[in-house]
Design brief:
Helix content: 10-25%
Number of strands: 6
Mean pLDDT: 78
Distance between the termini: 36 Å
Shape: globular
Structural class: alpha+beta
Number of domains: 1
Number of helices: 9
Strand order of the largest sheet: 1-2-3
Bound molecules: zinc ion
Order of helices and strands: HHHEEEHHEHEEHHH
Oligomer: single chain
Radius of gyration: 19 Å
Strand content: 5-15%
Length: 285
């Protein structure tokens, strides 16, 4: 039942995504990307059948540090979140004030999209809004609890996303209208599972079993990546399974493919994003 079980992919006719060439962020701190471990005949065949509209991207930069803006410099980002984002947010009084799992639509729709001038602080792991931001309008920092922070790491570190249909979604029509109506009313219904990248219901999930490090509470389960009918074929076909390349090229704006743009939190799945930087920083404390 591992991610390398390509025979199983073949048998049920699923799309098997070739192994990523990117390494998990921890490894990328010290070592260049590993070569692909193996490419079975089944995988190779699947790859040939998959339309590839762009070349395999170059290997990611080896060091996260290299991608950090020099401290003290202001840059402008497009964001729907309020910075600095507070990760691993655990208030001392025990209340849950997480904006991502409080049943609200914040993780998906976020605040109004803004071009915000920011300054990097504390070794690049956070951004302070300088001007044009949500802080200036009186919004508090976006708060993300520890489970919501750590649950995203297996997606970022997954060695090879193997996407299979979510049981039940193929046989029944998803209530997309109801889901979106609730979303725009500010709520996420418990029964809805959303795409990790855009505001659409997910039909596929990664089945790649994660190493049981105990750190992320995901023993034996998939990495957590869930994709919709638009993002799954895009990742498999256009980006050859390289989620990081896909996230690097997508921009959060309305398009024919994704009329609602992207999720407010999509950038947090980036290997060099704020969440990864925070987790790496926290692990060194
Ligand atoms: Zn395969
Ligand atoms: Zn949470
Ligand atoms: Zn995965
Ligand atoms: Zn999507």
């Amino acid at each position: 039942m591992s991610g390398d079980d390509c025979t199983a992919c073949e048998m049920v006719g699923n799309i098997c995504i070739p192994e990523q060439t990117t390494t998990p962020p921890k490894a990328s701190m010290t070592a260049p990307a590993r070569p692909q471990k193996r490419a079975s005949a089944e995988c190779a065949r699947t790859r040939e059948e998959t339309p590839t509209k762009r070349p395999k991207p170059a290997l990611r930069k080896a060091k996260v540090e290299a991608q950090r803006a020099p401290p003290g410099n202001t840059t402008t980002i497009i964001t729907k979140l309020c910075h600095p984002i507070i990760f691993n947010n655990e208030p001392a009084d025990g209340t849950n004030t997480c904006n991502f799992c409080d049943g609200s639509s914040m993780a998906i729709l976020g605040l109004e999209q803004k071009a915000v001038q920011v300054i990097a602080w504390e070794n690049g792991r956070g951004l302070r809004e300088v001007s044009g931001g949500h802080k200036a309008e009186g919004h508090p920092s976006t708060r993300v609890c520890t489970p919501c922070t750590m649950q995203r790491m297996p997606i970022i570190m997954c060695s090879k996303h193997v996407l299979l249909p979510i049981p039940g979604t193929a046989s029944r029509i998803l209530d997309a209208d109801g889901a979106l109506t609730a979303l725009f009313a500010g709520e996420i219904r418990k029964k809805d599972r959303w795409c990790s990248i855009c505001p659409a219901l997910a039909s596929y999930e990664c089945e790649t079993a994660q190493e049981d490090t105990g750190a992320f509470g995901t023993e034996g389960r998939g990495c957590g990546l869930q994709l919709c009918e638009t993002c799954m074929p895009s990742l498999a076909g256009v980006y050859d399974g390289d989620l990081q390349a896909m996230l690097g090229e997508l921009t959060d704006e309305s398009s024919n493919e994704r009329p609602l743009g992207l999720r407010a939190d999509f950038e947090l799945l980036k290997q060099d994003g704020l969440l990864t930087r925070y987790v790496l920083w926290a692990s060194e404390q």
